[in-house]
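Working notes for the structural subgroup meeting. M.R. asked for a predicted model of this chain before we commit to crystallization trials. I am recording the input and output together here so anyone reviewing the notebook later can reproduce the run.

Input as submitted:
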Amino acid sequence: METIILFVDDAAYARDQLRLHVPANPAPAGSVHWILVACAPRMTHRISKWVSHSARENWRAKWFAKTQDQLVPLLSQGDCQVTPVLAKGPLSELARELKLRHGAAATVVDARRPKVGVALEPLAPTQAPSPSPAPGRWKGALGGIGGMGALFMLALQFGE
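Returned structure, recorded in token form:
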């Protein structure tokens, strides 16, 4: 039985990513065991001023249930086994613990949505944090502004 550990923080984005990993014609019954690790969105540390701990945990549980409702039907095609897990604590330790429990041959799939300006937490201790796309984002814009400025200056020169 193949084991796939799937890390998710946004169900819609994960569905798009799963099209690469879920075959159109399902494998024989029980041949894939999906471990769905839901990484709930972080709340700022200042939220404790306005929301109690039990309300935060309640929200996480509702978010987890909604994520399961959206992804478990897709993953359980062909009678595949799905084990949902709500992530608490460092993801690298959870990934290591799951690989120990389900075998070193388990495949880890990171289907978390990349965020602009924020490096995602690594799933393995040796894995470097994903690079932030923010610094390169301005290269094209600044080049375009510089090119438009040069074009404007040429238009002024030839207009005289």
